[in-house]
Specification:
With 359 residues, the protein is mostly beta strands. The chain has one domain: Porin, CATH 2.40.160. Helices cover 13% and strands 49% of the residues. The protein has 7 helices and 16 strands. A 14-stranded antiparallel β-barrel has the order 1-2-3-4-5-6-7-10-11-12-13-14-15-16. Strand 13 and strand 14 form a beta hairpin. It starts with a helix and ends with a strand.
Length: 359
């Protein structure tokens, strides 16, 4: 029981420390990013955001999807398979000028073994005692866990966005043959739930783990402006266009409250994301995208990405994300888009796979 109390004390200390340093780590699983295409671009996606993953990157972007419905699913194993990260979203044009999005983000580690009160690991036993007395040495039974923990972090997001299009007739007054700009605005309402679950296979002494959890609610707001081409402004033919995106996450911070006694709270800091994208559909009759994004969190991070469509169904991507390189590939198959991304880490690499269904 003594070791259980020490472990309980250690976990409570972690909660207090995480509260004190919330500006760095609270709600950290929400900073991973979603969608293999976006991650292949180094996460420089706030000003691209042209598919269902915009519910994460910039809620305004879901209003730019021309199709009526889109569904996206992504899965990745992290930490050499110890953890999993998943994302599911669906968007639909519910009104002529209103698009609705629903999404779910989950990060978790399952089957964390608990070794409860193992005498062989008692620190009061000296090395000499272990050497001369077999009863103090670890036995096979000592490596059979008493039970398992699972750490689950979930976010459920509702997105709403609208699109304001400039009239082509009004835009033609510039005297150039070009497309008018688009302006999109969106908001997120999200619920965040974290749980440390001991499961049903623990005895009464360790079942207290199942009581740990936190919850909180937050809001995001995004703006996306697209100027499809520069002909009207500069008289340039086939020069391409620009897009500007801004996403303010966790407006007024998001407070997570833990069900400990006494209750502990931690705050997810407000995070400003600013992005600029250049796109051109005329380079060898293929699409080129150059994207830049800066985010405020963690002292400021820079994201860069480039995508080139080398053939009608195939696109290649390279990115830079906070001193790490990323890469990816996308394949378009009628109504489906299959995307893969590789994030190069300090110790291990992470593979992301996602599928986008448009209908």
């Amino acid at each position: 029981m003594t070791k259980l109390k020490l472990l309980m004390f250690f976990l409570c200390c972690l909660l207090v420390v995480s509260s004190a340093s919330a500006e760095n780590y609270a709600g950290d699983f929400l900073t991973n990013g979603v969608g293999a295409r976006a991650l292949g671009l180094g996460g420089a996606y706030v000003s691209v955001a042209d598919d269902a993953t915009a519910t994460y990157w910039n809620p305004a972007g879901i209003a730019a999807v021309s199709q009526k419905y889109q569904v996206c699913m992504m899965h990745a194993t992290r930490r050499s398979g110890l953890g999993a990260f998943s994302y599911v979203s669906a968007i639909g044009n519910v009104l002529p000028y209103m698009t609705l999005g629903l999404s779910w983000i989950r990060a978790g580690i399952d089957d964390i073994p608990i070794y409860y009160d193992v005498p062989a690991f008692d620190p009061s036993i000296s090395a000499d005692q272990r050497k001369h007395d077999p009863t103090y040495r670890p036995r096979d039974d000592d490596f059979i866990p008493s039970g398992y923990l699972s750490d689950n972090e979930n976010a459920y997001v509702i997105s709403l966005a609208t699109r304001v299009a400039i009239s082509q007739t009004w835009w033609d007054n510039f005297g150039r043959d070009s497309e008018p700009p688009d302006f999109m605005f969106g908001v997120n309402i999200k619920g965040i739930f974290q749980n440390l679950n001991g499961g049903d296979d623990l005895d009464e002494a360790t079942a207290v783990f199942s009581t740990y959890g936190s919850r909180g609610f937050g809001f995001d707001a995004g703006i996306l402006a697209r100027l499809p081409d520069l002909n009207a402004l500069f008289g340039l033919e086939n020069f391409g266009g620009f897009a500007l995106g801004v996403n303010l996450q966790d407006i007024s911070q998001t407070t997570l409250t833990w069900n400990t006694v006494p209750a502990v709270t931690e705050s997810i800091p407000t995070n400003l994301n600013f992005g600029l994208t250049y796109f051109n559909d005329y380079i060898f009759n293929r699409t080129l995208i150059l994207s830049y994004q800066w985010q405020q969190r963690y002292g400021g991070q820079t994201h860069l990405g480039v995508e080139y469509q080398i053939s009608s169904p195939l696109a290649l991507r390279l990115g830079y994300r906070d001193s790490r390189m990323t890469s990816g590939i996308g394949i378009q198959l009628k109504k489906f888009s299959l995307d893969y991304a590789l994030l190069i880490g300090d110790l291990i690499n992470t593979h992301f796979l996602s599928v986008l269904w448009t209908f």
